[in-house]
Write a structure and sequence with these properties.
By secondary structure, this protein is mainly α. The protein has nine helices and no strands. It has two domains: 109 residues, Up-down Bundle (Four Helix Bundle (Hemerythrin (Met), subunit A)), CATH 1.20.120; 38 residues. α1 packs antiparallel against α2 and α2 packs parallel to α5. The longest helix is centred in the middle third of the chain and has 27 residues.
């Protein structure tokens, strides 16, 4: 009974958060509602026993949404004075919302430990011998090891290519020659001068 109630709670909050993401006029508020939707979707994955997908949703997507939030703030003309003025008024709401998210995650874990949800109307399946994170890790690093490493190599090449393509050569900046600086001796950097009396140093 508890898993079913928690499922309906998470499902309702996911739908409500999605609607508020679209309906909010402030882009900052839309991003915050989207983060709430991601957290509740992670709770649904926990109920289904997919811990890997739940943590992946929180780590990757919430991190990506944080980057999206930065891009929105940089591209749009957001009045920071107005945002800071309302911070003291809304921080109790933010703390309460964080507490609600924590309670939801704990409820999802308790409901998952209680037996999960039966998808076909019958009895809920029993707990597996190992978690799906361990099973997926064993598959990735045994059977699909070379494919996994090849995917990482492709992503590395793509990242290096993006850096090379976006790198610009500026003529107004003097480049730094690190090897020449390392090879430089103190005798080459310091010159002892003995100017006569009344005459300055000539460079």
């Amino acid at each position: 009974m508890i898993p079913v109630l928690v499922f309906y709670l998470f499902a309702t909050l996911v739908i409500a958060s999605g609607v508020m993401t679209i309906a909010s006029r402030n882009p900052v508020h839309s991003v915050l509602w989207l983060i709430l939707a991601f957290f509740n979707a992670a709770g649904l994955f926990l109920l289904l026993g997919a811990e890997f997908l739940a943590f992946l949703l929180i780590i990757v997507y919430v991190g990506a949404v944080a980057v999206l939030f930065l891009f929105v703030v940089m591209m749009l003309d957001v009045d920071f004075a107005t945002l800071r003025s309302g911070f003291a008024r809304y921080w109790p709401l933010g703390v309460g919302l964080a507490g609600v998210l924590l309670v939801e995650m704990l409820a999802a874990l308790m409901a998952h430990n209680a037996g999960g949800i039966a998808l076909d109307g019958g009895a809920a399946p029993g707990a597996p011998a190992q978690s799906n994170i361990v099973a997926m890790g064993e598959l990735l690093y045994t059977r699909y090891l070379f494919i996994f490493e090849a995917a990482g190599l492709v992503l590395l090449v793509a990242m290096v290519g993006a850096i090379v393509l976006t790198r610009r050569k500026r003529s107004d900046v003097r480049p730094q020659n690190v090897s020449r600086q390392v090879r430089r001796r103190p005798q080459d950097a310091v010159v002892n001068m003995q100017p006569p009396v009344g005459q300055g140093v000539e460079l």
